[in-house]
Hints:
By secondary structure, this protein is α/β, with parallel strands linked by helices. It has helices spanning about 40-45, 55, 90-105, 125-135, 150-165, 185-195, and strands spanning about 10-15, 25-35, 65-70, 75-80, 110-115, 140-145, 175. The protein has a 7-stranded mixed β-sheet, with helices on both faces. It binds guanosine-5'-diphosphate (GDP).
Amino acid sequence: MSDHPYRRARFLTSAARLAQCPPDQGFEVAFAGRSNAGKSSAINALCEQKGLTRVSKTPGRTRLINFFELDPERRLVDLPGYGYAKVSNQVRQAWQENLAEYLEKRRCLNGLVLLMDVRHPLKPTDQAMLEWAAGMGLAVHVLLTKADKLKRGPAGNVLRQVRQALDDLPGEHSVQLFSALRRQGLDEARAVLDRWLQL
Length: 199
Ligand code: GDP
């Protein structure tokens, strides 16, 4: 199997607030999505490491920003899943503020990977995220996850539907089908990451 920089990814640190993040230098790509969208599975598949994001799932860390380092200049950033119902409004608001602070102020952030279950695309929180990123001029690449759950025809329809929705927004956007389970769309996604991370 060929070597690629994502296989070198290692957990670096977790941050509850922007002030706890690693120094704002080099290049970062962040991953966001509703809880259960398949974010952890996608990061593991892209990095070809089954247990890489286990740390993001440990109690107490699910609401933190988790950093994975490819090299001293390049990081993948696992943002807390949004739309999780089983917490109080107060808790939800606090962690959305952390998310907002990171996305708005992080200068080394070069792009956002937004994950949506191909069977449930463009939920209101996803729409809000897309519009917000567009407003900040942040490039977005959408992974329509668990593509193995739909047949080719219906999956293609969702792809077109989401592409159309993205076309209505300003800025740089792209979208693809993805399946961590079938290892579908890995090269396509890595090509986007390569560009954003200047690899
Ligand atoms: P996260 O909460 O966004 O990090 O989502 P996870 O990666 O933990 O995945 C949530 C659930 O979806 C788990 O039960 C996974 O096994 C499942 N899942 C993730 N990716 C895929 C995929 O490509 N195909 C299928 N069929 N299931 C997946």
